[in-house]
Amino acid sequence: MRPLRALLLAGLAGAALLAGWLLYERAALLSFAATPFGSAEEKLVDVPAGSSAHAVVRILARSGVLSDERIAWRYVRWLKRDKRALRAGEYAFAGPLTPDQVLERVYRGEVKTYKFTVPEGLRMDEIAAIVEDAGLGKARDLLATMRDPAVARELGVPFPNLEGYLFPDTYAFTRNPKPRAVVDAMVARFRAALREAEAQRLPGVRLSEKEAVTLASIVEKETGRPEERPHISCVFHNRLRRGMRLQTDPTVMYATMLRRGGRWSQNITRADLLAAHPYNTYTSDGLPPGPIASPGEAALVAALHPSACDDLYFVSRNDGTHVFCPDLACHNAAVRKWQVEFFRRRAAHRPAGGGAE
Predict the structure, then answer these.
(1) Which residue has better confidence, 268 or 194?
(2) Integer Cα distance of 3 and 182 in angstroms
(3) Of the candidates 180, 222, 182, 250, which has an alpha carbon nearest to the alpha carbon of residue 306?
(4) CA 115, 220, 238 angle in degrees (round to 5)?
(5) pLDDT level of residue 309 (50, 70, 90 thresholds)
(6) Closest CA to 250 of 285, 295, 219
(7) 3-class SS of residue 322
(8) CA neighbours closer than 13 Å in the CB half-sphere of residue 96
(9) Cβ(177)–Cβ(116) below 8 Å
(10) Which among 170, 172, 171 has a CA at the least distance from the CA of 113?
(11) Thinking of the domain 32-108, which architecture would CATH place it in?
C-alpha cells in the first residue's frame, strides 16, 4: 500500500503544482492584457495577406506594438481565443495601447487611411499633384487616367477627359489605391452634387449638362465669394442670351496653357487676349468646349439658378468682390476707378526704389 500511497501523494502534489502554474500563467496573461504598451510616435505595421495569427502577433511585437511576442501569443491562443481572422493591411499605432486595443484594430481591419482635400476651382493637373503629395500615387499616372477618353466614357462624362468632374472635397484611401479608384470616387461625388444642383434649376435655364458644368467652372474661377456666384452667373446668362462674347479672363489663361503645351501662367498679355483658340472667350463666341476647372456645389447651383439681374459686366474691386454694371458707361467708369486709378494710387504709395509694400 505504501507505493500506491506515495504515488497518490505525488500525483496530488503534481496537480497542485500544475494548478498553481495555471493560476500564475492566467494572472500573468491578465496582467499583460491590462497593461498598455508602446511609445507615442506612430508606428506603421504591414500585415501581409495570408499571414497566420502567430505571424501577425510576431509582426506586431517586432514592430514595438506588443510588449512580448511569447506572452502575446499565449494570450491570443489560450486566453483570448477569438475566432475572427486577423486581417491584412497597413496599420498605424501610437501608444500606449493595451493588447486588446491593438488586436481589435486588426480583427476589424481598421487600416490606415491617407486623406487629401481638393479645394474648389482646380484643374486636373493641380488635383493630381495634391493626390501625389498625400502619398496616394504618382501624378503622371493619375493624369493619364484623368485624360483617358475611354475612362471618361465609362464614367458617363460627356467630354474626352475628366476636367471639371473631379469634385472638390476631402477623400480618404488606404495605401496604394488604383488611379481609377481615386477618379471613380471623385466623379461619383461630382454626380451627387450635380443632382443636388439640378434639383434647383430654374425653369427658364436651358443649359445641357455639358454647358452647365462648363459655365459653373467659369463662375468658380471668377469669384471666391459664395454670395457673388449667382450674380456672376446672371451676367454670363445675360451675355449668352444677347449673343455677346463672355470675355472672361480665366478662359484666356486656360487657352494660353493649352497653346503652351501645359505651361500655366497667371499673367495675361494682349497677345493672349487676341490669340484665336476655342477656349478663349475673347475670340470665340459662346461657352468654351469644356470646363476649365472643377466647380464646387455652390457654383453648380449658381450656373443653373442664377440671380435675377440686368447686368452685363463686372469689374474686380481687387479685394475678392466685384462691381456689377448693366451698361458700358457704368462698366468703363468702374474700370477707371478700380483698375486704372486703384493701381495708380497703389503705385504712388509704393516706397521709393520699387520695394514691396
Answers:
(1) 194
(2) 78
(3) 222
(4) 160
(5) very high
(6) 219
(7) strand
(8) 8
(9) no
(10) 172
(11) 2-Layer Sandwich (3.30)
pTM: 0.83
Average confidence score pLDDT of the chain? 91
Q: How confident is the model at residue 353 (pLDDT cuts 50, 70, 90)?
A: very low
114, β-bridge pairs:
173
DSSP H stretches of helix in the chain: 2-34, 53-62, 69-74, 99-108, 124-133, 139-146, 149-154, 179-198, 209-222, 229-242, 249-259, 270-274, 297-304, 328-335, 342-348
Instruction: Answer yes or no: are the C-beta atoms of 138 and 76 closer than 8 Å.
Output: no
* Cβ burial, residue 266 (10 Å; 0-12/13-18/19+): exposed
Q: How far apart are CA 324 and CA 305, in angstroms?
A: 18
User: How crowded is the C-beta side of 231, counted as CA atoms within 13 Å?
Assistant: 16
For residue 230 the three cell numbers come to 449667382
pLDDT digits (tens, 9 = 90+) for 72-124: 999 999 899 899 999 999 999 998 999 999 999 999 999 999 999 999 999 99
**Nearest by Cα to 305 from 242, 219, 186:** 219
Is residue 5's pLDDT more than 80?
A: no
Pairing of strands 322-325, 313-316: antiparallel
Distance CA 308, CA 323 (A): 16
Q: Residue 27: CB partners within 8 Å, gap ≥ 6?
A: none
Say which DSSP state 167 is in.
Answer: -
